[in-house]
Write a structure and sequence with these properties.
By secondary structure, the protein is mainly beta. Helix content is 6%, strand content 23%. The model has no long low-confidence stretch (mean pLDDT 75). The structure holds zinc ion (ZN).
């Protein structure tokens, strides 16, 4: 799959870039952008790779907000409920 030239415009969904370019081009700094990440992970940071996410639905969509833990009880500030966490993995790596 060839790399498409950056700045072509209009084909954002089809752009294929390296994850490094997200930093280089500051994608997402000004506004949220979807990127398609297709990469092989070479390394993964071993700390803070997962967090306890809210498994409940909020407005019909998965909440996924980070839960607050206190005395082995996980509470979602948004849903105002105590729940069991759904551990989400944050991949911090390179391609
Ligand atoms: Zn929630």
């Amino acid at each position: 799959m060839p790399l498409s030239a950056p700045g072509g415009g209009g084909t954002r969904g089809d752009r294929r870039i390296c994850l490094d370019h997200i930093d280089t081009e500051q994608i997402g700094d000004a506004k949220a952008e979807w990127v398609v990440a297709l990469c092989a992970v070479k390394y993964v940071k071993t700390d803070n790779v997962c967090y306890a996410a809210c498994p409940l639905e909020y407005n019909g969509r998965p909440c996924n907000k980070k839960l607050s833990e206190m005395d082995n009880m996980f509470t979602c500030e948004r849903c105002q409920q105590t729940t069991q966490p759904n551990y989400r993995y944050v991949s911090v790596g390179g391609c």
